[in-house]
């Protein structure tokens, strides 16, 4: 299979989005967020590309951004008009904090790579690679507001792939530094002018092939079964296909008659306000529970009786399945390990139904105690 990390990532975040883009080849309507991100990347490439007179000045960069601003896309959507101002602000701050020495350390911009993962070809683009005092820095620009926790950067598969591509395409540069920890992998959050960096070990590099192969297998499985379910998330805001996606269709084209519309408005309002009340009550229950738990601890009682009923401290153990052991067992019994890595305990119960007794026993043995505690059981409660 010939694919790219961004296609696989589309599948991972939403299989339906993958289908629209990669299989149905539908050209999505570009959202303001996406258009903004693309133009920022383009402008950064411009900033780092020297001309006969040297690197572009701040004014030239801002002019470039302004001239390429696809006003008709962004304004027509009636949303996020502030993006233009945001872009100017980000670029001004960015250029102010850089000098020619910083720009001279760039060795590659928007570099296209192609690496072999088993029998598959994986391609992509690296935004920028710099030579640094310690070695090299591979940079991916981000225009998002949100900065993820550092743990996410450490596990970011895309950055690991970039490192693998760097080693593959520039073996002589890698030879200079020898160790992977001399190559910094950075996400550059432009809005905040913040860089978050991590490095990888040799073992991390080996894991990449396995992770990518798992993803490719999952795509092939979905193609075989023609099963591409939508997976709504915060990322829908970045999706080009909102207008045709069944999850969002009602927003763009209400389907019911006027009366039904009114009814659905009322029902929705009721549902939303009941959920808010539920949340509030759950908070109160938690507070009261804490007081009762303390009472149990202080008195060392196992059950106490009141005029309204009794409350019993009932022990509860929570178990979970060890995913590594489960994957191994499923491999042994000849099922597809990829789908198993994704199953929750409910799906696993379904899978167990078709297995031999001995096989079910093996799965049960992969269960591990996760938590031990107690729940409060109310008995003989009277209406208060
Ligand atoms: S809008 Fe959301 S659910 Fe629909 S295809 Fe896009 S990402 Fe998937």
Describe the structure.
This protein is α+β, with helices and mostly antiparallel strands. It has helices at residues 5-13, 15-23, 32-47, 58-68, 71-76, 82-96, 100-104, 150-155, 157-169, 171-177, 202-225, 249-252, 258-299, 323-332, 337-342, 345-352, 357-365, and strands spanning 2-4, 106-117, 120-131, 136-142, 183-189, 194-198, 303-306, 309-321, 367-379. The longest helix is centred in the last third of the chain and has 42 residues, at 258-299. Residues 338-342 have low confidence and may be disordered. The structure holds iron/sulfur cluster. Residues 14, 16-17, 230-232, 235-236, 239, 241-242, 245, 247-248 line the site of iron/sulfur cluster.
SSE topology sketch:
Elements: E1 2-4, H1 5-13, H2 15-23, H3 32-47, H4 58-68, H5 71-76, H6 82-96, H7 100-104, E2 106-117, E3 120-131, E4 136-142, H8 150-155, H9 157-169, H10 171-177, E5 183-189, E6 194-198, H11 202-225, H12 249-252, H13 258-299, E7 303-306, E8 309-321, H14 323-332, H15 337-342, H16 345-352, H17 357-365, E9 367-379
Parallel strand pairs: 1-3, 4-5
Antiparallel strand pairs: 2-3, 3-4, 5-6, 7-8, 8-9
Helix pairs in contact: 1-2, 3-4, 3-6, 4-6, 9-10, 9-11
This protein binds iron/sulfur cluster (SF4).
Gist?
The chain has 384 residues and is an alpha+beta fold. It has helices at residues 5-13, 15-23, 32-47, 58-68, 71-76, 82-96, 100-104, 150-155, 157-169, 171-177, 202-225, 249-252, 258-299, 323-332, 337-342, 345-352, 357-365; strands at 2-4, 106-117, 120-131, 136-142, 183-189, 194-198, 303-306, 309-321, 367-379. 17% of the residues are buried.
